[in-house]
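pinned: reference chain
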Amino acid sequence: MKIDIFNTEKVNLMKKALGTYQKQNKAIAQNVANASNPDYQRTNTDFSNVLKSVSSQAKLKVTNEKHISFSNFEGKGVDSEKKEGKVDITREMAELAENQIRYDFVSHVLGRTYRRIQTSITGKIR
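pinned: its structure tokens
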């Protein structure tokens, strides 16, 4: 049986999460850029439904009650790119900060995963 160490469920979930956070960052930036436009309708930037659907396909297990579960996102999911109301710049900046923290976390975990693979292959520990 051939195992692709770069295409595991965990790695694929993290890659999709990074893509989702990038898309969310773009939508928030568009909202901020158009905040002064009275005709602009805010683009909803809650993409948790995308990650929830991906996570259910990934069959991730929660082995400790303190682990983050994607069930926390139930009911929060909305369609991406949905237009709704006017832009509240304070709300957008808060969502941008939260999105950046999530992106940085997933990026760090993915980088650590790749470094572990590199260490396994080369046998060199940094």
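why pinned: The chain has one domain: 9-122. Helices lie at 9-33, 48-58, 89-122.
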